[in-house]
Amino acid sequence: MIRLGERQTLECVKKVDFGVYVGDGGDEKVLLPKKQVPDKLKLGDKIDVFVYRDSSDRLIATTKQPYITLGELAVLEVKAVGKIGAFLDWGLEKDLFLPFKEQTSPVTVGKSYLVSLYIDKSNRLAATMKIHRFLQDSAGYQKDDRVTGTIYEINRELGAFVAVENQFYGLIPQKEIHKKLSVGDNVYARVTEVREDGKVNLSLNKKAYEQMDEDCVKIIKVIEEYEGELPYGEKVSPEIIARDFGMSKAAFKRAVGRLYKARKIDIAENSIKIIQ
Description:
Layout: E1 7-16, E2 19-23, E3 29-33, E4 46-53, E5 59-62, E6 73-81, E7 85-89, E8 96-99, E9 112-119, E10 125-128, E11 146-155, E12 159-164, E13 168-173, E14 186-194, E15 200-203, H1 208-225, E16 229-230, H2 238-245, H3 249-261, E17 265-268, E18 271-274
Parallel strand pairs: 13-15
Antiparallel strand pairs: 1-2, 1-4, 2-3, 4-5, 6-7, 6-9, 7-8, 9-10, 11-12, 11-14, 12-13, 14-15, 16-18, 17-18
């Protein structure tokens, strides 16, 4: 049986002016266009191909290697957005369709997103950003391991869902998010918990004592942008701290405390200023 969306080895069973037909020994066969046919290919020879559908919705074979095959995960770039969905570059002549209903957020031309390849109800290949079911449990991660991943969905109550190394399930809990994140973002995170179900919780921050030096530098830089004096003190809201510094209020207070003890800033009720 010829398998849609997969690489497979098929036999050259018929030659025509516009290419060759390849099959698996049964009645079913598919066209390999002339420009894809190796010069020395003869009847009975085996050839490795990928099978998809052309612009006329006919099965067709190609010797090209697509960036993704059935059931795999890959980061693909958006080439166009239309009325019914988007179209992704997957390395073949016909772009891959990403329906609106399979998007976890609106997509932007030129930006890349993590997707999987599936066969829809019309027996066509399509992409989906709903990749949760394709992810695996953690691969032996331990607390404080550093990992990379791609954000594939954001839930305002739970947090940002991350495909760790683009194949394992991870979550940045909402309480750990102090800056704007978007679907498609690549993140470098720290494992804070390996759950009993094998999934991992993540943080974008280092351990408190490691993070504090970076936070101090960031606070000084922001105060300088305010011409040396912040228009608010330590009691400012967590929302303003997240907006201006991209950190939690606890991290802000730790760093401000260190800067104050080092006599680099002066703290008043409604201001924080750099000591010249």
